[in-house]
Amino acid sequence: LPMNKHQTDIAFHMADHDDTGDLSHMELLALIQFIIREMIEAFVQSYYELYMRIYYTVDVLGQILADPQNIRDYFQAYHEAAGGEGQIQLSEEDFKQAIRDAVDQGYLPFHEDDIQLCFEIIDEDGSNVLTGNEVEAFIHLLEALKEYLQQLLEVFHEIFPEDNAHAECEVLEGGHGEPGAEEEVYPSSEVGEVEVHEGGEMTKAQRIIWDFKTWLEAARYTMYTLYYVAYNPEIAAQVVTQVGAQFDEDGSHRIELDEFKELVKAVAGEYSAYVTNDEIEATFHAFDVDYNGGLDIHEGTALVQAVCKEFAHTIADALYHHYTYLNSELENLGATIDNEEAIADEVNSWFQGKDSITWEEFRQAIEYAINQGGLPFTVEQAEATFDQLDTNNNQELSQAEVVEGLVQWLTSVRTLVGSMVTAYKEVFATTTEEIEEQEETEAISQQIPYYEIQPEDESLPAEPVDQFRQRLYYVKMIVEEAYVIYHNDEYVASQIPDIAHELDFDEDGKIERHEFQALVSMLSGQLQLPMNKHQ
Length: 535
Prior knowledge:
Layout: E1 2-3, H1 5-15, H2 25-65, H3 69-81, E2 89-91, H4 92-104, H5 112-122, E3 129-131, H6 132-159, H7 165-172, H8 204-230, H9 233-247, E4 255-256, H10 257-268, H11 277-287, E5 294-295, H12 297-338, H13 340-351, E6 356-358, H14 359-373, H15 379-389, E7 396-398, H16 399-427, H17 432-445, H18 465-487, H19 489-503, H20 513-527, E8 531-532
Parallel strand pairs: 1-8
Antiparallel strand pairs: 2-3, 4-5, 6-7
Helix pairs in contact: 2-6, 2-18, 2-19, 4-5, 6-18, 7-8, 8-12, 8-16, 9-12, 10-11, 12-16, 13-16, 14-15, 17-18
């Protein structure tokens, strides 16, 4: 973490919410969580940008190499424009200018250093003149580069798979597939692991799980779309351009405050009543960095990215807490079902010492619960429940019948909740096999220098694909572990006393600024966060 003294002071005062001059355990907890989150975002953004650069380069090279003759004709045209005749002969400067022109037109994703390196590689005879044979070497170089980058893309897809993309698009467009599918019986082939009744129709529980998983996929698609915009300034700028054109009433190419208020109300829709003018104005002024009273394309892009990131985080947090709640309930249901003796004791207390109750007594108890306790139940439903529990049809319910019925009901609820947890794992979670594979490669991965390059061919510097795969697996593992830690308040809070004790050198129960500097140094080593003293 490259932080100078001024930046360290700023971080300390930001963390010191109560302005006491020292950090409490909760303030330290919040600070560490903030740093972890920033680390996650930095990792994700840097590797997403790397992926997009590779993807774009492969796409462009694929178009160029679709017909190599176009490359030969391109250099031939430059040769003739320079007054040459016959076979291609281009000077170093003419070659570089031809490549620069191709870069400017979007045909090649090269930088100036790439152009120089490229010429040095293909100028096999060292004559500083590009011949026809060397043009062929240039084509082969592009083919080798495309093949190598394609392998890196495959590694990305292997480690970060994006399954069901087509299904996600359908979900976003509103439905289970084709129009009108809501009214149709779901085909058994699309139910997955759930058993289907004869005739291919889904039970109510299966319908619930289907709809729940569809909702999860829609939430995932929305979240990933928001993250995509948040980490892709080009896309965010397109959003600003499209939306801004609708609200830039004076044609100034800036969104003034009044126009911004109208934009917020239109976007918020029915929720606009919950957004105050003060909040709108504060947001506007926060992003009007040049204080000229209007948001230009750059300020608008920053605003869109920030809003998308915040909404994506909100969705991710809500989904995570819902998942942990379901997982906790699943464990509780399992413990309850396994303790049938406790269920029998509870039923015995309901029966108040009686061995059985009649339908009339059962009905009176239900009516009392409906009238006094607001039980969402009808007498008709109560009668159907009574008949279902009365397995021997003697018009009475014994304690054993109620216990058996409760266990069956709790089991069905556990199955339903378990299916919902499984749906979360299928849509979001890493599989156990992948986690185990990460653990097996962790020791090797940690020993790989972060930016080490070991070219197999001196003419084409490249990191070996296997090494790149291991590095990417390691990064994925770090991010996933950090997410788990970030959402586990109890775990992080449990570490605070030890951290505080380790840093409280003078043992006065406080973390002063010089002790805080030691914390920064510790995080710099463990999390590889480059902070200088200022930060």
